[in-house]
């Protein structure tokens, strides 16, 4: 199977009166890392299960390389579920070989690939251990190896970084980047938004079954309000409160982080700061993905980002 773009096109799903997904659309280009984020119950896992064929959509379509995804396509998808789906009493190597063979690999290729991923993910000393005897972090590594062992052409991961220590996060991040670099579209969900912001090429935010923003982090945060970082050693707390359209986000000693509404005058902020004495820092600040996410999943209408 050749490289291709993964497309989720107006996918909807209902459970009785409850709308789980409402025309969800996004795409993941070959070689792209796409972060799929949202609150618990927003529809991330449902979307992934439809992508995998575990659930059927009520309407809409999932495509890879421009063609609807079939059973044959799905044998080339690597999936890492949030709930671990491993056989607890099987040994690590034995399990990975078995899963690779289930995806159509020969016995020799399955062993070769299993040993490769065991070594890559730091599991060599645990290769003959039962999965249930591993730490949670190592079980997570085995779960990733299970998603990669059959050399997938699409990679879908549901909360892959959950419960990992910083070293394991670095290892997994490196593996995902390398896999994407081979032309594989990679989509993963995560609540660790700082990691999503650092790792992903593009991000989609889902709320109550609807996509409310999609684009690069730069695109999404560029239009999400203006911020300033002001350091004024002589300023009293709340010194900027009288400036119209300005809200204090955080004050840490002499440094204040401000958010400006559209049209607010940053020069008025500077004048107010100078009125307190010397100003040693006055810089623009782009909002973080975490701040954007909080606004996007709030009950108030969310500003649309750049659509996928």
From TrEMBL:
Pfam families hit by this protein: ABC_tran, DrrA1-3_C
Topology within the bilayer: Peripheral membrane protein
Localization per record: Cell membrane
GO CC list: plasma membrane
Superkingdom of origin organism: Bacteria
GO molecular function terms listed in the Swiss-Prot or TrEMBL record: ATP binding; ATP hydrolysis activity
GO biological process: response to antibiotic
Domain ABC transporter: 6-233
Coiled coil residues, start to end: none
Keywords: Antibiotic resistance, ATP-binding, Nucleotide-binding, Transport
InterPro entries recorded: AAA+_ATPase (IPR003593), ABC_transporter-like_ATP-bd (IPR003439), ABC_transporter-like_CS (IPR017871), ABC_transporter_ATP-binding (IPR050763), DrrA1/2-like_C (IPR025302), P-loop_NTPase (IPR027417)
Gene3D superfamilies hit by this protein: P-loop containing nucleotide triphosphate hydrolases (3.40.50.300)
Protein name per its UniProtKB record: ABC transporter ATP-binding protein
